[in-house]
Amino acid sequence: MAADLTILESALGHSFKDRELLERALTHKSRVYERVAESGIAADNEQLEFLGDSILGFVVSECLVRRFASFPEGRLSKLKAHLVSAARLHEVAQELGLGEYLLLGRGEEMSGGREKKALLSDAVEALIAALYLDAGLEAARRFIETRVIGALHASENAAEAAVTDYKSALQEMAQTLKLPPPRYVIVAENGPEHSKTFTVEVRLGKEWVSQAQGLSKKSAGQRAAQQILQQLTEWGR
Length: 237
Prior knowledge:
Elements: H1 5-12, H2 19-25, H3 32-39, H4 46-67, H5 73-83, H6 86-96, H7 106-110, H8 117-135, H9 137-148, H10 156-161, H11 166-176, E1 183-190, E2 197-204, E3 208-214, H12 217-236
Antiparallel strand pairs: 1-2, 2-3
Helix pairs in contact: 2-8, 4-5, 4-8, 4-9, 5-12, 6-8, 8-9, 11-12
């Protein structure tokens, strides 16, 4: 690899006993065929990503319950959706400079794979699994609490401020529930040109629908998405 993995290990706060676990966590499936040719080993990070996703969800849930004992389930669900989202994991990957460490196939390299949100967020989940397999749950928990959750402060206002993009949270929820992406439609525009009120409808699958108003299309869409998230939280109970 061109990048020095010891620098990444320093940023992770962990020196791997099994360096192959770290390399596998950084290996995209596009690289597998080339890696087989070079080393005879076929191992990308998809299985690690699968495991890391579960570990991340568990640790985040546990930490939120401990930190915000007074929060109802709905508020905890919103915070969790934010913290495990691809957008949040992408931020973590950027802070680590993870793109320069990825092992990519030539085609993925040429198409800008080192900067792709999906690849980077998946690699963070794979890293969490690698930490777990190399040193146990505490190593994974330290990373998650420091890098993923660390920005949240133990005040209700600060925690609530972390969740402002309800449309992204709803998109993540739809993927988790294996539903089609939410669809947004402007159903009404009222008032004079300089002071319009917009009504936006969002539909998720066949059952979930909500409408909300706002002074901009964006704010109306966010409110409608928030309402769907609340409906899904109630349904999950």
